[in-house]
Amino acid sequence: MKDTIENKVDAGVMLPLMEEFYTIQGEGFHTGTAAYFIRIGGCDVGCHWCDVKESWNAETHPPTAIEHIVENADKWSKTIVITGGEPLTWNMQPLTNALKDRGMTVHIETSGAYPLTGTWDWICLSPKKVKMPVPEIYKEANELKVIVYNKNDFAFAKAESQKVTSSCQLFLQPEWSVREKMIPLITEFVMENPEWRVSLQTHKYLNIP
Questions:
Q1: For 2-206, CATH number?
Q2: In the predicted model, what is the mean pLDDT of residues 68-97?
């Protein structure tokens, strides 16, 4: 049985589901819109400031059939956000196929550290210096969201913006624990570089998931 489940996870027909919930998108281009979030466990990128470190170990999250995930999602919303963890650790094609068969719009939030699988309506790429995106994902990104933890992240953001297409939406977002210190710097940067926009974790201000 174990081998069978492992094979199904490898194939993407079962996935380590951490949580799923209907809420308001708090970050980036779609801030303020309702969406159903599917959080997949498993991540080895290892950002020290990650606020969902409980997602890192996939073994703590039960392998769940994608049919069950899709059935739950379809009760709530036609806009779906797949997040993690790092969802591209796994094969996303079966899940996105099943969601789109139900007429859903499917977004992903990813570090891009693994090759892109799945069929997506919106790709939010949030690169991390500790494990850089695979090169081919940059041209697919609809949104580039760089988390700003210190001043060095502004140079990193500029360098990453040179890799995406001209139509990609650019966002800077302060890491929550240093937001009071970084928001003034982000504001100044965006005023000097108006191709960028500010993203805030508004769901935390609203005290929602």
A1: 3.20.20.70
A2: 97
